[in-house]
Amino acid sequence: MRFCYLIGLCCAFPVLANETETLKRLAQCRQTQSSLERLDCYDSAWQDSTPHAIPAGQRSASWLRATEQEKGRETHSTQFIIKESSVEDIPQVVLTTPALGIAPPRPILMLSCIDNITRLQLILHRPLTGRELPVSIETDKSRFQSRWFSRDNGYILEASRGLQGIREIQQLFGATQMTIKLQSGEPRWTFNIQNIEQDIKSFRQACHW
Fold it and tell me: 102: which DSSP letter?
């Protein structure tokens, strides 16, 4: 009987620890000023508390948006697919391009202006672990370090939003390829970003920068 009791305690502690961490993150979300970013913070906190794999149809709107857009790609094309739309007269612009040298389903680089928020995201089909990951960004023009954030249970790796994210996008201007690497060096993802400065003109107008 005592043995069973100890086993029960051992099993319970990880659950309680996980719940405590989730509650801490939810409390931090309340400090976020922007209502949209606050909602995204809540979503991320709940998703990270359930680390099991999520069926594709149940993943986030960002993940589904990128994968649906890439379904319209011509087989050998690697240029950005650009989709422009509007919701309640608010313009939305989404650009996607697949990773080079990787068999399908390929990771996707997505730049989006949704609800006037600039996002630079890496869409994955195999989830990463960790919540905040140091990354190295390399192009044929520059190299810089950054910290990106895990979203959607590890299926999205996202740059900072706001001015920091905009600065990272601007550092890609004039380059033809971009490689994202984790601190360990693996995995790494390379994308064709030729003409990015021209391709994101409507994107920049939509997000007012």
Answer: -
pLDDT tens profile 6-42:
334 343 333 334 456 666 777 777 777 665 566 567 6
pTM of the model: 0.74
Q: Where are the domains of the chain?
A: 53-206
Backbone angles phi, psi at 110, to 5 degrees: -125, 130
CATH topology of domain 53-206: Immunoglobulin-like (2.60.40)
Q: How far is CA 13 from CA 17, 48, 82, 167, in A?
A: 6, 18, 48, 43
Task: Give pairs for 29-34: CB < 8 Å, separation 24+.
Answer: none
Q: Tens digit of pLDDT for each residue in 83-127?
A: 999 988 899 999 999 999 999 999 999 999 999 999 999 999 999
Helix or strand or coil: residue 28? Answer: helix
pLDDT of residue 67: 97
Nearest to 179 by CA among 62, 105, 99: 99
Structure tokens that stand for 41 in this block: 């913070």
Query: How does DSSP assign 154-182, residue by residue?
Result: GTEEE---THHHHHHHHTTTT-SEEEEEE
Confidence of residue 57 (pLDDT cuts 50, 70, 90): low
Within 10 Å of residue 172's Cβ, how many Cβ atoms? Answer: 20
Distances (CA, A) of 47 to 53, 114, 155, 156, 171: 10, 21, 11, 12, 31
CA 148 to CA 25: how far, in whole Å?
A: 17
